[in-house]
Amino acid sequence: MRRARTITLLLLGGGAMTAAVAAFPTRSGECRAARAAQDKFADEICGRSGSSSTRTGSGFWGGRSSGGATTAASSRGGFGGSAASFSGSGG
Amino acid sequence: MQRLDVTPRPDRLERTRSLGFAYADIAGEPYWDESACYRFSAAQVDLLEAATAELERLSREAVEHAVRWNRRAQLGLTEAEWTLAVRSWEAREPSLYGRMDLVWDGGATPPRLLEYNADTPTALFEAAVVQWEWLQCENPAADQFNMLHEALIDTWRAYATPGGTVHFTCVPDHAEDRGTVDYLRDTALQAGLNAPFLHVGGIGWNAAAGEFRNLEEQPIHTLFKLYPWDWLLAEPFGRHVAAAPTRWIEPAWRLIPAGKGFLALLWQLFPDHPNLLPAFLEPGRTGGREVAKPFHGREGANISAPGIETDGPYGRQPRVYQAWAELPCFAGRYPVLGSWLVAGRPAGLGIREDATPITRDTSRFVPHFFPAEEAKGQP
Fold first, then answer.
1. Are B12 and B366 in contact (CB under 8 A)?
2. Position B90 in a domain
3. Does the distance separating the beta carbons of A18 and B129 come in below 8 Å?
4. What pTM does this model have?
């Protein structure tokens, strides 16, 4: 359970940091877990079993959309109405 | 598992504020409560982790079963919800995170699932960062079931395009929701992504392009929403979701485990599993005291049990009837163990306790630790 941890925040707390504690081996098993879950991206995850800083990502999230060329303004306000009846939406 | 009384740090509010934790107190009452903490053994943490992994395995099997055999009606999902959920599951869209609420006293009876917050779980920042900072200050030689921060960053790196953009949204003016979203934005930034925020009402629909857009009229490729799927799809823009190219976090298939009807499906598929509680769609079948939960209820609202009735806006929903599992009581407080998953793997623990056996939005967050010398694999 114990891991080498230095929790750094970039956005919250103006970039706060909590202290590291102790060394612990890098987590392994990511590839095995992806295989076990029949993860669509298992091949890519297993292929990136080295340092996380070298990862290239599967590209499932955060890619660029096609479109954006139209100049027509979008309509807004079509989401959010349910929240008026509730306090918060998390759980 | 023990509950220990401890003296709060005199500067606890300053410390938590310095982390950007904006809701240590809510309405003048402590939400972050460090007047107590829970102590586990390393073996107990291992057991919790294993139970969480097992429950995730069961959950994914049950989702697969539900999709294959069209259990939409039992799960209480609309046709529109079901269509999206099935498509999302079959595309194996990745999940970022979830929280299983477990009942356990650390004893011989295994941890058992109360419910699975698979769509919009909160209490993440305090579990990942605030209780870790507390541990470093109060007991730095000890350990904590907490890999959340690293796991989140790793998951962004695994599934996102480097330098890409993930938009984040939630309702405005709700400190807890915004705190959860901003923390996730922080982890995305650390993974090298752009992570702009826009409130849910600011999401635009561009009919000409057939896509959702941000306030700058740029397309939203990926959207993390701390906003329930059942709300989204019931609202005016909900009808555009199926055709839009936006990728959603959590993905739509999380509608399936997030609903309380899923608890009855789990029990049907895995009867007598030691990590499950009997649950049915009809009252009186558990053979004992039971609690009725609305299918899409949140934060302990509209819960019914003998001697207990909570208010809320979900009273008209169908209910699931789950065997009553008395929460353990430590010094008059009832803890629920929130066991976190990131990308489907156990990643940490957050404990919330209440003065009643029902965990609500006012229940306090209490930190935990376990002695490091007991941890496996220590040099």
1. no
2. no
3. yes
4. 0.90
